Amino acid sequence: MNTENKDQAEIDKFSELASRWWDETSEFKPLHAINPLRLGWILSKTSLPNMKTIDIGCGGGILSESLAKCGADTTGIDLSSKALKVAKLHALETQTSIQYELISAEEMAEKNPATFDLVTCMEMLEHVPDPRSVVKAAAKMAKPGGILFFSTLNRNLKSYLMAIIGAEYVLNILPKGTHDYAKFIKPSELSTYIRDAGLEPFDMTGLHFNPITDHYYLGSNVDVNYMIAARKPL
Questions:
Q1: Which pathway does the UniProt entry assign to this protein (predicted)?
Q2: Which of left, alpha, beta for 23 (phi over 0: left; psi -120 to 50: alpha)?
Q3: Which helix (H) or strand (E) holds 122?
């Protein structure tokens, strides 16, 4: 196990793109497109005003800003200093109050156990050597009764064809090399990580893309992208 639980090549890859994080026509267009869906799903499960919230793997702050604008007391953490600089600058430009910190989930959990009402970890688990460790850290950060949200990519032939071949090589929605199929995580595996961390998964939904209409939507099918909501018992 990588004791720091980071893949430097992954960090470097997203750091190189950092300046384009808030360009909605850039490589990050899909994140901007799915963000209202992610936020809407979170809002359907919990309230945000005054909720102490942490966004793990926040990158340039797309979800973090949305959470803060809904009234959450938001902290974003990431291991890319370049992405965090972009996030901080954009928060200043939009006058959004967010605390950003260059720190791993595991270290944050050691420093701030049972601190957060809401924990999000979206599109991040498939980019670290040990996703189980991140889930465990997220659970440690959450207060008893806290709500946690995770999203990642399923591992099967369909997800390989759609998320890598389709998105990266045919449609050019994402830069080539964005994803490593071997790091994709089956819902059954993520559910096991969640339960082993002492959490109770209570909902799951799929995130879908229609290339003909250029439209993203939520649905019950979790063959490719999916999100899981979990609760930390009181």
A1: Cofactor biosynthesis; ubiquinone biosynthesis
A2: beta
A3: strand 116-122
Domain ranges of the chain: 8-174+186-232
* 141: Cα separation from own chain's centroid: 16
| CB-based contact 21:83 (threshold 8 Å) | yes
Q: Give how far the C-alpha of residue 58 lies from the chain's centroid of Cα atoms, to the nearest Å.
A: 7
Q: Does domain 8-174+186-232 have CATH number 3.40.50.150?
A: yes
Do the strands 215-219 and 200-210 form a parallel or antiparallel pair, or are they unpaired?
antiparallel
Q: Which residues are annotated as a binding site for S-adenosyl-L-methionine?
A: 38, 57, 78, 122
Closest C-alpha among 133, 73, 79, 134 to residue 102: 79
pTM over 0.85: yes
Q: pLDDT tens-digit profile of 53-110? A: 999 999 999 999 999 999 999 999 999 999 999 999 999 999 999 999 999 999 999 9
Burial (CB count <10 Å: 0-12, 13-18, 19+), residue 214: exposed
Distance CA 108, CA 183 (A): 23
Identify the DSSP state of 26.
S
